[in-house]
Amino acid sequence: MPSFVDRPAQRYAGFRDTVTAEGLPEVAHRIGAIVGALAQRGVTPAGAPFFRYLSVGARLTVEAGVPTEGPVDLGEEYFTDVVPGGRYATSTHHGAPDGLHAATAALLEWGERQGVRWDRAETPDGERWGARLEVYRTDPREEPDAAKWETDLCFRLAG
User: Fold this and answer.
1) What's the number of domains the chain is made of?
2) Region 3-14: what's the mean pLDDT?
3) Which residues contact 107 (CB under 8 A, 6 or more apart)?
4) How far is the C-alpha of 137 from the C-alpha of 47, rounded, in Å?
5) Domain region containing 111
6) Using CA atoms, how far apart are residues 87 and 154, in angstroms rounded to an integer?
7) Residue 1 predicted with pLDDT over 90
8) Distance of CA 137 to CAs 31, 94, 96, 151, Å?
């Protein structure tokens, strides 16, 4: 069942790209690269990795991110930023990533029934989001069975 939570601001190291839905796996592979680059610098992730959807339309602008305690320089391909804190609607998807589209639709529909105003704006290219996250709580190296994976959907409400 979805719920509302207050999330603090979270610094992260990330990689950003604009892709079609078919390009999402390439961005997802950057999570491992970011974790590896952090490890080379002696930095331990400060939380579960995530996808941040900045714009959603025919093309998606997405970020693969790994929470950090502070800024870290990982080179030209990567950046550090902050996911804004605030009030979020959240739900947990149990299962493989191919179910995330339906889980996202369910959270958005639930929010509409609750009268939620999302932190998003309509643009000619689609929706622009302030903070729309998929937080990957399960490490596939530790749990290879995708049916057992847990992903938190966290969508920021308009302030």
Assistant:
1) 1
2) 98
3) 2, 89, 90, 91, 153, 155
4) 9
5) 3-156
6) 10
7) no
8) 13, 10, 12, 6
Distance (Å, rounded) from C-alpha 17 to C-alpha 89? 25
Contacts of range 102-108, beta carbons closer than 8 Å, 24 or more positions apart: 103/151, 103/153, 104/153, 106/2, 107/2, 107/153, 107/155, 108/155
Domain harbouring 54, CATH code: 3.20.80.10
Position 125 confidence tier, pLDDT thresholds 50, 70, 90: confident
- The answer to whether 38 and 45 have CB atoms below 8 angstroms apart is yes
**Residue position matching structure tokens 């991110």:** 65
Euclidean distance between CA atoms 38 and 142, whole angstroms: 19
Q: How far apart are CA 149 and CA 138, in angstroms?
A: 5
Q: Quick count: other Cβ atoms within 10 Å of Cβ 71?
A: 12
DSSP 57-102: SSSEEEEEEEE-SS-----TT-EEEEEPPEEEEEEEEES-GGGHHH
Residue whose structure tokens are 């604009």: 18
- The two tokens of residue 99 are 């179910």
Task: State how far the Cα of 108 lies from the Cα of 93, in Å rounded to an integer.
Answer: 13
Residue 109's pLDDT is 97
